[in-house]
Design a protein that fits this description.
Number of domains: 4
Strand content: 15-25%
Order of helices and strands: HEEEEHEHEEHEHHHHHEEEEHHH
Low-confidence stretches: 22-36, 347-355, 367-372, 392-400
Distance between the termini: 77 Å
Mean pLDDT: 77
Structural class: alpha+beta
Shape: elongated
Helix content: 25-40%
Radius of gyration: 35 Å
Largest sheet: 5 strands, mixed, barrel
Strand order of the largest sheet: 1-2-5-3-4
Length: 419
């Protein structure tokens, strides 16, 4: 192949790379996205630092959605983030996009518990050629019809499962079927039917509801992209106790995410609440006074306040008390000493020194808050008058009036001559 053919082949490959580089990337940038903006992206903060001579021997390659793997660059190819490569698979080869190179790959392998000594990594064959990208394009085009057809087949076999996604291998010889099921499913017959129907090797991979939401993506109730699709790599179980500790209303519609499970963000501030509640008394303890028994109603964790109500109180008035005061009352009750009544504190900002009061201002703002105030309107009127005066408005002195009159006469004379 001469130099002219090599240049022509490279231009074709670059064009096809730009066309399919947006696979597993955000849909807003499309072909302009060269390297990033994909799910579970990692910022390479060691990009400009070469700590080891063979820093580019192991690379991270991403495939469809959130699937990633580590490969050995045995041929010492000059690879950078965003390159489309052909890698080893079983069987055949797969096509992926380089998502990370350099020393940071080794750090990520340590976090994931992967060692090159314990297991042999698969190899990177080459940079993707024009023929490889064409096969990859055909494989991508077959994924959605295959998913629809496989759902019909599983329904005909009366299998209690949902096939959520299909991912073809780069050479089109194998496909991974991702499914969700509550119970164990015997899909041996399904594999036979799928293999005969599509003439491929079939791999069934079970995923959870949270993983499916991460693969599909979307916008959460907070207005941002789903955490499971943007940065969460491992899922931690979330229980209703996390909501109870944070004094959150147990409303399933508000606590559930798009996956139908409890939101992962319930765990984000849980440790702060647990640390703040270390010396809080048990809410099931009844405070006994000469006035009567008092029961717990609600708690403000970070203000360290708790509200109690008397058992036989007709007014149903709550008594606000600090945690230290409640602890003292509990100690007195254990010694069979009962105070006359609960000494509460006023719930005003002046009485609670050092405590910042937060108010809900939703709906208090006026719809006209972006309009100009009366003072600004006067200023704008003055400014418009000055512009009119500068731009041929009403003249101030006699000389300017005389010049304007002469100009009008000349224009009138020219118009008459033209007629």
């Amino acid at each position: 192949m001469d130099e002219k053919e090599q240049i022509q082949e490279k231009s074709i490959i670059d064009k096809k790379e730009s066309e399919f580089r947006s696979r597993a990337t955000c849909g807003s940038l499309h072909n302009k996205c060269q390297s990033g903006c994909f799910k579970l992206e990692v910022y390479d903060w060691l990009k400009e630092v070469n700590l080891v001579e063979d820093y580019n021997q192991v690379i991270e390659v991403r495939f469809k959605n959130t699937r990633k793997a580590y490969f050995l660059n045995a041929n010492n190819l000059r690879l950078k983030k965003g390159d489309i490569v052909a890698v080893e698979a079983s069987p055949g080869h797969d096509i992926g996009i380089v998502s990370l190179t350099g020393q940071l790959v080794r750090y990520k392998m340590q976090v994931d518990g992967i060692s090159t000594k314990d297991q042999e990594l698969k190899k990177v064959y080459r940079k993707a050629k024009s023929v490889d990208i064409d096969k990859w394009k055909d494989a991508i085009g077959r994924e959605h019809p295959t998913m629809i057809k496989s759902r019909q087949i599983s329904s005909d076999l009366n299998l209690n499962m949902k096939i959520g996604d299909v991912e073809y291998q780069g050479d089109g010889t194998k496909a991974i079927f991702y499914y969700i099921a509550d119970d164990r499913v015997d899909f041996r017959q399904l594999i036979k039917v799928l293999a005969e129907q599509f003439k491929i090797r079939v791999e069934m991979r079970q995923i959870g509801a949270r993983q499916e939401a991460g693969r599909i993506g979307g916008i959460g109730s907070c207005g941002r992209e789903l955490c499971c699709a943007s940065w969460i790599t491992n899922f931690v179980s979330v229980t209703t106790n996390a909501a109870r500790y944070q004094e959150v209303s147990l409303n399933p519609q508000k606590l559930a995410g798009q996956c139908g499970k409890l939101k992962c963000c319930l765990n984000y501030e849980l440790d702060a609440y647990l640390d703040a509640q270390e010396d809080f008394p048990d809410t099931s303890i009844v405070l006994r006074t000469k006035k009567g028994k008092a029961y717990h109603q609600k708690t403000d964790v970070f203000k360290r306040l708790m509200w109690y109500i008397y058992e036989e109180d007709d007014k149903k008035s709550l008594t606000c008390m600090s945690v230290d005061t409640i602890q003292e009352v509990i100690k007195q009750n254990r010694r069979e000493k009962f105070p006359d009544k609960l000494t509460g504190i006023e719930e005003s900002a002046s009485a609670m020194a050092g405590v910042v009061e937060y108010q809900n201002t939703a709906g208090l703002e006026s719809l006209t808050r972006f309009e100009d105030s009366p003072t600004e309107q006067k200023i704008n009127k003055k400014g418009s008058r000055k512009k009119q005066q500068k731009g041929g408005g009403k003249p101030h002195n006699k000389n300017q009036r005389r010049d304007n009159t002469q100009f009008k006469r000349k224009n009138k004379k020219h118009s008459q001559d033209g007629k």
